[in-house]
Amino acid sequence: MDDVLVVGAGPTGCTVAAEVARAGGRVTVLDRHEAPSPLSRAFGVHARTLEQLDSRGLADELVATGTPVDHLRLVGRAGIDLSRLPTRFPFVLMTPQVHVDRLLERHARDCGARVERAVRVTGLTQDDDGVTVTAGDRRWRARYVVGADGVHSTVRQLAGVRFPGRAVLSSVVLADVRLDLAPDDLRVDVDEHGFGFLAPFGDGWFRLIGWDRRRQVGTDVPVEDGEVAGLLDRVFGLAPGPTRWTSRFSCDERQAPAYRAGRVLLAGDAAHVHSPAGGQGMNTGIQDAFNLGWRLATGDLDGYERERHPVGRTVLRSSGATIRLMTLGGTRGRLARAVALRGLLRLPPVAHGGAGTFSGIAIRYPGPGPVGTRAAAVPLHGPRLAERQRSAGFVRVPAADRVDGGLGLLVRPDGYVAEVSP
């Protein structure tokens, strides 16, 4: 019997699996796809996620696959400056999700997790001792099951967990298009009919996300060349170049009321889904996984939902508010954006707070004083904290009796402060 069975081999599932395996647990990952999708979906990796990946020795390799961007241009002259963030990674990394998928699946395997693909889960039952998962005539048994199988999670449905929420946007256009722009040009803008977002993908290619309230069709309707050209011209004043890929999607705001049902736990899009505003989806899932992985390895599961459910709720609210601000039409919309983007964001405290929220480094969990805060910036004599955390198991720092007037910190495997002494 496995200690943990993970359903879903995306970034969330593979991170959970790696965390359990590196702590000595027996873990298997099942995924219905034969291989990671080569098509780019998510593409922004934020500073806090990079800090956590750095603690496993993965960040530098991932950064080499993409484009670091330290400034987001918003509507008009507003923007979010990431360059002054107190982190080793004062930027958002623009890289297609396929690079993240491959890196984290390899990492999970290297840590000792088994990954089985082309397996479609069809059944799940749990008892006092564990969970039985079936796929056709095959059967797996584990102490715990993690559903990291996306917004249409089979695990969530089989566990009987509701997924309440509502539709937010329909007929959103995705396109990878070649443009004559600076290689780190990241921008968002609006016009009277909708909005557009451009992110650099390297080699002159950019990801376009656009929405036009006048063009509301099903997600199965192909994107026409004129739609891409129209969005680029109308929203950004840009002439389109070659297009190599297009798609169309809709998005909801939903969150499971509980992230745990007995021996079944939910993470990533299986637990929460929201609009693409802010690029938080993949990042929130990976951070769920870092929080859950060490808890599965130690049996300390009670804190997972207590800490991560409020984070998911905050992301839903902030991304929802952002998308409503961007899609509000008429005079009301223009005034609201002027106040929020051209007024408030120019105030230093608001701008600094916005950068911290956008990057994820402002996330903290309940606790007195420094307890619950990220420990990435803790000053140490010798190697950085992230370097100390790269070896699996316990990290022994024999200096508790030699601290002169300082504090001793107990840091969790996910990089947050657990205790402070004296």
TrEMBL record:
Q: Which GO terms describe its molecular function?
A: FAD binding; oxidoreductase activity, acting on paired donors, with incorporation or reduction of molecular oxygen, NAD(P)H as one donor, and incorporation of one atom of oxygen
Q: Which organism is it from?
A: Klenkia taihuensis
Q: Which cofactor does it need?
A: FAD
Which InterPro entries does the record cross-reference, listed alphabetically? FAD-bd, FAD/NAD-bd_sf, RIFMO-like
Q: Flavoprotein: present as a keyword of the record?
A: yes
Q: Which controlled-vocabulary keywords does the entry list?
A: FAD, Flavoprotein
Residues in FAD-binding domain copies? 3-318
- The keyword Flavoprotein belongs to this UniProt entry's keyword annotation: yes
* Residue ranges of coiled coil: none
Specify the superkingdom.
Bacteria
For this entry, the protein name equals 2-polyprenyl-6-methoxyphenol hydroxylase
